Amino acid sequence: MAEFRITGMHTGVPTHYCPGCSHGLIERLVMESIEELGIQERVIAVPGVGCAGLAAAYYNCDCHSPSHGRALAVATGIKRVRPDNIVFTYQGDGDLASIGMMETIHAANRGEVLTTIMANNAAYGMTGGQASPTTLLGQRTTTSQQGRTVKANGYPVHMSELLSQLDGVYYIERVTVNTVPNIRKAKKAIKHAFQNQIEGKGFNFVEVLASCPTTWGMSPVDAAKWIGTDMIREYPLGVFVDKDQGVQR
Amino acid sequence: MSKVLMKGNEAIAEAAIRCGCRAFFGYPITPQSEIPEYMSVRMPEVGGVFLQAESELAGINMVGGAAGAGVRTMTSTSGPGYALMQEAMSNFSAVGVPFVVVNMMRGGPGSGGILVNQGDYFQATRGGGNGDYRVLVLAPYNVQEACDLIQEAFDLADEFRLPAILLGDAMIGQMMETVEIKDVVRENRDISWATTGWDRKSRPRNVLFSLNATNEENEARILGIEERFHKAAERARIDTYRAEDAEVILVAYGTSARVSSAAVDTLRECGIRAGLVRPIFLSPFPVERIREAVIKPDVKAVVAVEMSRGMMVDDVRLALNGEKPVYLCNRVGSFVPMPDEIADFVKQILSKEVR
Description:
The complex is a heterodimer of chains A (249) and B (355).
Chain A: H1 23-36, E1 43-47, E2 62-65, H2 71-81, E3 86-92, H3 93-99, H4 101-109, E4 115-120, H5 150-153, H6 159-163, E5 171-176, H7 180-198, E6 204-209, H8 213-216, H9 220-234, E7 238-242, E8 247-248
Parallel strand pairs in A: 1-2, 1-3, 3-4, 4-6, 5-6
Antiparallel strand pairs in A: 5-7, 7-8
Chain B: E1 4-7, H1 8-18, E2 23-26, H2 34-45, E3 49-52, H3 56-68, E4 73-77, H4 79-84, H5 86-94, E5 100-107, E6 113-116, H6 121-125, E7 136-138, H7 143-160, E8 164-169, H8 170-174, E9 176-179, E10 207-209, H9 215-233, E11 238-241, E12 248-251, H10 254-269, E13 274-279, E14 281-283, H11 287-294, E15 301-306, H12 312-320, E16 326-330, H13 339-354
Helix pairs in contact in B: 1-2, 1-7, 3-5, 10-13, 11-12
């Protein structure tokens, strides 16, 4: 069995994430991918606002943390003037699908040669568990205390499906990290999303169904199970766009 | 380069390119759309980046991303667009990203009107974003000065690590004048702070992030901005016209200053010793220079001339601290105060002051 090792892409600063939170895990997959692809010196991180926004302390590379929702605009600015760098955003569902929806859609539609990792945990974690655009119908949050209803909040937003309609996207896959096999698939998707950027292909988008046991009011184990049942039912896993394979659903 | 006849907006765009601006992100809005139009042609010619953003909100964040990656970058807009940019002005000021924003002022509030106006003075000089931050604001009064000042704005932004605003107006942007645009490309700009990719050898890891872990960090950040801003204040300057022996001083910037210089001549012809003080910097406000020009025994009154409900007049009053009477002569709603109106206003208040 391989020995556990902290990747060189991690600064070594202990993370602040709650027990059972997926961010640390997904970030590790991002960091491992960057290291394995040998792009540590070219990479520039653009962490969105939210729990994962504090990851500027963890990514062992240059980081530009923008205002809430503006990650893909800032990343566009960086990539357009420094096309040889590898630029990625890591955003939550509130950041990417609510306040940053416009920036997300337009960056994808322009086919920006970027890599975007969306951690979809169906809630605003940092501010204490409010409803987000991806909150499931019936899901209780601090701003949908009787459960999300269509009448009050409309339907859950499916970002992977939505972005798949745009000609500018190159690669979209939805994955999760609730089981070991799923973690392996997530790693493969994330690495592929970076590899594409190295080859000048974009836009690359990986949606990761993530857990937030603290705001969901669940144990880490129950949260992982809930992803496997309720979340995957609403947000099916799979490749939505892969232009290398001629796939565009 | 010899003198050429150019429209203000296009001349400003060319001047920016001649001082090394290599990225433009922006959104169309009257009366500045000739700037993105010009940039869309010229940037590719010089190997730069032009991108029409989906909104001013996205555009200014692209500017911050590119400027944060160490490239001379700008955008241009008018009041309603600049309003959308305030979040970013606050955020990028906090992390010391230098870039230039051109605001060709039009009428407000709201959509207001598309003609000349100066109602964005507070928005520009005070900042519409949240928190304790500062920006640099320069105000040209003709097309030549607009070209010179945008080049200076890039240098000041670099030197003080603050965003700089060129505050023009619809008149400056839309009129054609002869200009001579200088080539002042800066070699070896210090971008050691920028996010350019970290080689793990030549410098520490660069992080641009405005959220602070502690009060101490936040305090140090704000005091750093204040220190740089106060250092920039030493550069804040004015121009004067027939002010040396004046008994009444008009204070005006931009197009108002241009009209006011004609009013000075009108008043002089009537035997009234009028002069003009024209702040070139609006932020930091040139307090000391204005005091030197105005706090003189001969000066009976000071008149701020503005195309707004009276904004810069507050800074004039603060600068003079009650030592001279300050009046406001203004028009709103995109009306330009005419030289005769200004002269009549001055005659009226002088008769009051003498009495």
